[in-house]
User: What shape does this take?
Amino acid sequence: MTSKSLLTEDKRTKARNAAERRFKSYGVAAIAVAMMALAILLTSVIVKGIGAFSQTYVTIDITLPADRLDKEGNRDPAEMAKTTTIGYASVLRDGLIDTLAAAGIETEVSAKDIGDMISKEASATVRNRVLANPDLIGETVNFNLLADGRIDGFFKGRVTMETASRDQNVSPEQLVLAEQMAEVGIIETRINWAFLSLPDASDQRPEAAGLGVAILGSLYMMIVVLVLALPIAVAASIYLEEFAPKNRWTDIIEVNIANLAAVPSIVYGILGLAIFINFMEFNQSSPLVGGLVLTLMTLPTIIISTRAALKSVPPSIRDAALGVGASKMQSVFHHVLPLAAPGILTGTIIGLAQALGETAPLLLIGMVAFVRDYPQAFSDSAGLFGDPSTALPVQIYNWTQRSDPAFVERAQGAIIVLLVFLLIMNAAAIILRRKFERRW
Amino acid sequence: MSLTLPLLFIAALSVGGFFIARSRAQSAAGGDIRKLASLPRQHGLNTALSTAIPALFAILAWLFAARLLSYRETAPIWVPLAIIVIATLGFILSVMRVSVTFRARTAAEGWIRSLLIGASVIAILTTVGIVFSMLFESINFFSQYRWQDFFFSTNWSPNFRGNSDLGILPLLWGTLYISVIALIFAVPIGLFAAVYLSEYASRRTRSVFKPLIEILAGIPTIVYGLFALVTVGPFLRDYLAQPTGFGDSASSVMTAGLVMGIMLIPFVSSLSDDIINAVPQSLRDGSLGLGSTHSETIRQVVLPAALPGIVGAILLAASRAIGETMIVVLGAGAAARLDLNPFEAMTTVTVKIVSQLTGDTDFASPETLVAFALGLTLFVITLALNVLALYIVRRYREQYE
Assistant: This one.
């Protein structure tokens, strides 16, 4: 005789409870996978990109010989400009060899290879400084110069003795010498804030490449997007939410906006190329065109969140305003809009953040170009925001396409910068929402 | 003559008009504004808007017409003059209408309303712009290249000297293959995460993990692209593809699909979350009351009820996967190939749009113009998916309202 108790599980109940636990564990596993992906992604970016924020420098005393740098001997910058950076490179090489001798380091490395340990950018740095101050000629000046990208990579672990033996651009002997120089303090790795301000550099000198132009270009585009998208989106939302009659036309506009929000971003790039560049003949790769394309792309996002914000203002506010004699327009502009403002701003910031990270449409309107001049906000020849420029995400893409692996490190560093900007924007949106959002 | 001068004129007349109309209204009322049908500043506003809006519209119309007729010099003298006349006319007419009985508020609001309508028409203009910008160049392309070859050829090999094979099939195959892998990865994870967060998780757990998952949605695609290029690609090659002998390319369908899957997780999960939450509580209560366990309720009641909405969410995710660019540009490779091996590099429609339009080829050549035909195809496919998905989601929402 078996008596069944509610407290002992029979076989079927057991199986059902097991299924229950299994199902629940699938959910936990799914979340765990998503979290792991997030963690791996962020760690990978930080570990690989943090190196871009430090840089290896060579500190050397250089005697600037008058006979090589100022052949006329009159200290006239116009005459001295005839000496090219190649002339300066040999001066730097001799300076480094002298410094090594003074530090008591003996080496088998050839003079040319010693010179190659200094960045190709360094001779331009020295030349600019000398041209700006011709009195330096003949003196011994202490310079703090960029080391070559491979030497920099050695101190960051990207280049090893093993890879150097296979690399034409750097030899293990140079690395041994670099280690000796580091011991006596001639070579030093420290924080590199110039990464945020310098313009891009050519393929040969990753150590000198920075984000200055890209950040400026992105900033200009964000200004264009903010100035155009916010008023247009708010006006469109007010019309659709408060005034539009319920008819076919309004329906078409609504479906249209929902669809535009889901159109692939690259299609907006084609639109920009065909309309703004080929038809309207705005300047290629200018922040103006980039900003216009991003405006059209973010409009649906901002419209959708603005409409949600307007919808959340209770009708009693409108009724009260209408009751004391306000017109429909006044009730909206004087009462509903101010109450919806925090929600609208939050939506706008999120739209801007989305625009800031967008890459594909900008590739098509020519923002991949190599730009070394800082773009002007306004110039007589190019007009408002018309100077060629690049943008943060496009600069990242650009660097991934170069052969030197040092550029991949730069690209990862640029991603950190981009993510920090996005973090700040999203945090601002959250704070705004927490602080000003009203629940009715 | 440049249009700067008329622009300044409009601005000055508009601001001046505001004050003139305001003071005229005040003097018409003889100092007692209770006699006026509208407040003095509303008269001012009406004049300012009547001056500015038609004139600014005229400027836009001229700019558009000039481009349409490919007129390249600065505008002939009659254009700025006409604009100035329009502004002045608006100014004079509106100032003359100032009177005790004139309802300036209604008139001014009419102008504002037209601005609001104008802003919402921009959404339609954008769509029209998208369609036309691609349509014209596509027609141009098909006049140089047979459409049968474009849609049905299995070979893609553009050639700078002309005589290229531009068949879309290998590109479509790569696009679909990568999207399917991404969805196979993202849909179960996103769906289970959504089910867990909305049905099992405590309020606290939910408030921690939901935002964390949504961080994945806020990360720009270029970041995912680089992640695929430097981390996932080499990892898959060294630990999966090479040991099993499937291939030795870091950029592959698998790399791009996997990373795109990560990108789609928050998309699937937040859409499904909304949909699962919309299932009425009474259905759950009924099922639990009949003695089914929590998971049985979810599997046999909640998910079937939410199915149309979830299908809509998956379709939206698919449309996003098909249109995604940066991940495939950096992760999938550039070789057009019809192959089944997921560890082989393949390419997609979006990759080829980028490479054909950023190259140095002549703009009028079929090698460049094909990008517009590709773009149009992409637009039509994603539009169809979106319309279908939005329709399903909308129908589903109405079902429980």
